[in-house]
Amino acid sequence: MALPRSQREDRKQLLTHPRDTPTLRPYAVTPESAFPYLIWTLALMETSIRPARESDAVDIADIYNPYVLGTCISFETEPVRAPEMARRIGETLGSSLPWLVAEASGGVVGYAYASRWKSRRAYRHSVESSVYMNPAHTGKGVGLRLYSALIEALRASSVHAVMGGIALPNASSVGLHERLGFKKVAHFEQAGYKEGRWIDVGYWQLLLA
Ligand SMILES: CC(C)(COP(=O)(O)OP(=O)(O)OC[C@H]1O[C@@H](n2cnc3c(N)ncnc32)[C@H](O)[C@@H]1OP(=O)(O)O)[C@@H](O)C(=O)NCCC(=O)NCCS
Q1: pTM for the structure as a whole
Q2: N or C, where is the chain less crowded by C-beta within 10 Å?
Q3: Dihedral sign of CA atoms 2, 29, 179, 127 in order
Q4: Same domain assignment for residues 109 and 10
Q5: pLDDT tens, residue by residue, 109-161
Q6: Cα–ligand 1 centroid distance for 102 (angstroms)
Q7: Cα-based distances in Å from 152 to 15, 59, 139, 163, 206
């Protein structure tokens, strides 16, 4: 369960500026007010991040295909079947790039992976990153944990530049990228056409030290 946005903002301020909180509203701690925090904490505690396996392909395709078929977030237009998804996972892991899944209650609830940005040799330290959550599990901090883990895995490798391409508008993806320090570096107008309309694509970039 997500915290109300106002409480999430207050929580963020408390964590970021512990001594600078004169404008915060004081909370009377009651069982009712503590309940969302308890659920949120339990949800985060029971979610684990681990490397993907080819056997996750069915779960990953189940998360991805509704975005393919029902939104302009993915520019693919045909559902990806499990064998093809397994091939993609194997190809990524075989290229020494990370593919991670978030698992809760025994099921995959989200995934993130990196792919080569371009094939020519001088681009070898650049990747494109992607992240998809099961909509039932968004807004709980899991996407942030998952994408942070991907960035850390890339930081530990020889990757220098991470590019995130976002079909616009997409407030949650833009928010997630900027939360992790990505900066907008490009905006291509009408680069895609899907569901009867032209779609702009923005690129956000994170340089790793
Ligand atoms: C984008 C996505 C991965 C975010 O995952 P999530 O689990 O919902 O995100 P979290 O709850 O961990 O939130 C992390 C941060 O993202 C941002 N964010 C999340 N939802 C947001 C929203 N609706 N509006 C603005 N920012 C939002 C915030 O900065 C948030 O940090 P905060 O909680 O400190 O404010 C998820 O919404 C998703 O799968 N969307 C559909 C697929 C997609 O768009 N993938 C990206 C393709 S480019």
Answers
A1: 0.84
A2: C
A3: negative
A4: no
A5: 999 999 999 999 999 999 999 999 999 999 999 999 999 999 999 999 999 99
A6: 14
A7: 21, 24, 21, 15, 12
What distance in Å separates the CA atoms of residue 132 and residue 145, rounded to the nearest whole number? 12
| 118 and 160 part of one domain | yes
Cis, peptide link before residue 51, omega less than 30° from 0: no
- Ligand 1 near 151 CB (within 6 A): no
Specify whether 99 is located in the same domain as 173: yes
What's the CA gap between 175 and 166, in Å, rounded?
A: 11
| Ligand 1 contact, 143 CB (< 6 A) | yes
Instruction: Write the pLDDT tens digit of every residue in 1-21.
Output: 444 444 444 444 333 333 333
Query: In b/e form, how buried is each residue of 74-92, taking b as 16+ CB within 10 angstroms?
Result: beeeeebebeebbebbeeb
**Ligand 1 mean position to 87 CA, how many Å?**
27
CA-closest residue to ligand 1 atom 19? 172
Domain that holds residue 41: 1-45
Helix (H) or strand (E) holding 38: helix 31-45
Domains in the chain, number = 2
Lookup result for tokens 């969302």? 36
- Residues with Cβ within 8 Å of residue 84, at least 6 apart in sequence: none
Task: Tell me which amino acid residue 25 is.
Answer: R
